[in-house]
Design goal:
Two copies of one chain form a homodimer. With 114 residues, the first copy, chain A, is an all-alpha fold. Chain A is built from six helices and no strands. In chain A, 67% of the residues lie in helices and 0% in strands. In chain A, helix 2 crosses helix 3 and helix 4 packs across helix 5. Chain A binds a DNA duplex (30 and 30 nucleotides) through helix 3.
Chain lengths: 114, 114
DNA sequence: GAATTTTGGACAAATAATGTCAATTATTCA
DNA sequence: TGAATAATTGACATTATTTGTCCAAAATTC
């Protein structure tokens, strides 16, 4: 649970730390992701979201398991969405139940349609 | 936590149950929300998301505390987003920490910008 | 079986997200 | 210092996504 990658850090901060640890300029990461430098700068600040392909490339570039990066990414989305809401704890607990519920419902129907 | 409203039910299912309990046609709810009937039908199936104003009107129409409806709504969004991901449990736990982190960061900066 | 209700899809309008570019600011280091 | 490189920022066009309306077809009710 307290994996080094994911604990109390945003995806952007993880990116920046990885990049600086390797002394790479934004340009290099940008080239690897095949986007403009400014996009990477914004990603590191949480102002832009990488897509799945970006995540894969980040994982390979920074030598991190893809799943960990994915968790980092998804939890970012949830966190940014809920950070300004008073009731975020309730939301997370209810969401956990609801996910189970949705899955069981879809298993019953034999189809996945999220 | 296990409030009647929120436990293991989607927002749409809650809407439908409330509506049927009162024997209202979609038309009536639609009028109250000021949208087309088909939108309400889709909301009940989770194919359309109500906005904040809709939530307020739903709360008053079905006589439910607004905050409960809000939790129902937000947890729906999270659940639909994560239901198809393998690692949703990790995501929720990391997200919880991250929310605290984001808040403390923004408190320090003295500004809210989510 | 007529009237009402519900469902679903096509469509246009509104909104949000994405990436490129260029200009400005900051940092590095010779 | 000052030239070169790096980082930040905002404007902009483009693309996706979301939203609601309208309409026609099913389904339900009575």
């Amino acid at each position: 649970m307290d994996k080094t990658v994911n604990s109390r850090r945003t995806l952007g901060e993880w990116m920046r730390q990885c990049r600086e640890a390797r002394q790479l300029p934004l340009r290099k990461v940008a080239a690897h992701l095949d986007v403009d430098t400014s996009i990477v700068a914004k990603m590191e600040k949480g102002q832009r979201h990488p897509n799945r392909i970006h995540l894969q490339r980040l994982a390979e570039l920074f030598d991190e398991p893809f799943d960990d990066v994915l968790v980092l990414y998804l939890s970012d989305r949830v966190a940014y969405e809920l950070a300004s809401e008073r009731c975020s704890d309730d939301v997370l607990r209810v969401a956990e139940e609801k996910i189970k519920y949705l899955r069981s419902k879809n298993v019953k129907q034999g189809e996945l349609e999220f």
